[in-house]
Amino acid sequence: YEPGLVCDGEFDFDSGVRAANALLDLANPPTAIFAANDDMAAGVLAVAHDRRIDVPEALSVAGFDDTTLAR
Q1: pTM
Q2: How far apart are CA 28 and CA 26, in angstroms?
Q3: What pLDDT, in 10s, does the model give residues 12-71?
Q4: Within a 10 A sphere around the Cβ of 6, how many other Cβ atoms?
Q5: Helices 38-50 and 13-24: crossing angle, nearest 10°?
Q6: CB under 8 Å to 21, separation ≥6 — which residues?
């Protein structure tokens, strides 16, 4: 467990964006992000797209709860 790699979120797209930006701005950014739900994972994917990070080659993203958005 690495506390510096955990971001609090509000289970929505915008908090996924904020968390992804915080994590990907680290000197040694993660190669995988697990989001607490699919809306947050969508925010992570949006940030990866904006930064031209190849998913899943350079960054793996997983969400949780199997919403319609994830399908």
Answers
A1: 0.93
A2: 5
A3: 999 999 999 999 999 999 999 999 999 999 999 999 999 999 999 999 999 989 888 887
A4: 10
A5: 50
A6: 47
